[in-house]
Amino acid sequence: MARAASTKGKTRIQREKTEQILDAALEVFSTYGFRGSTIDQIAAEAGLSKPNILYYFDGKEAIHGVLLDRLLHKWLEPLNQLTDSDDPTREICDYVMRKLEMARDFPRESRLFANEILQGAPRIHEQLTGSLKTLTDEKATLIQHWIDKEKIAPVDPHHLIFSIWSTTQHYADFDVQVQSVLGVKSEQRFEIAADHLNKMFRAVLKK
What we know:
Arc Repressor Mutant, subunit A; 2 domains; mainly alpha; Tetracycline Repressor, domain 2; 207 residues
């Protein structure tokens, strides 16, 4: 367990050091994956000594665990915001835009999550089959409700959600590929992607 996982009762310096370590670890884990990362790499990225890192955390497993806990809360929030609406197409497309904005604003977190999934999700399997599945099932039921009311075209609700995840997170997890193919290094690629995804999902959902 991370000694500094909770900042409650910590001094300002301790809180700052904890965040410094977590930010460095996020950079390292999102680049090299859990297996390819070491405490030495995290220490170097943070500009701290290895003993200093181990004063705050028991090891890389503890640091990784804190990052994943934070990530899952952040990752589920856009889906949490999907609610019943008289205009379900707009509601779903707004969700697509929130996910794309996360890919733009939190690419390291997206790659951290992708790396964990590619390794078989050994550290978050319980959450995937628990809170993530529960929320996804709940929103799939809402989408099916819209379909039954003939407000959107018939689609498989779960696979619609999977499609949203894959098309938006692609712009974070494969950003190097996207930039290489497009030759666009500015925010323009996300503006173009937003326009494309909005048109594509509206076409899929159109009655």
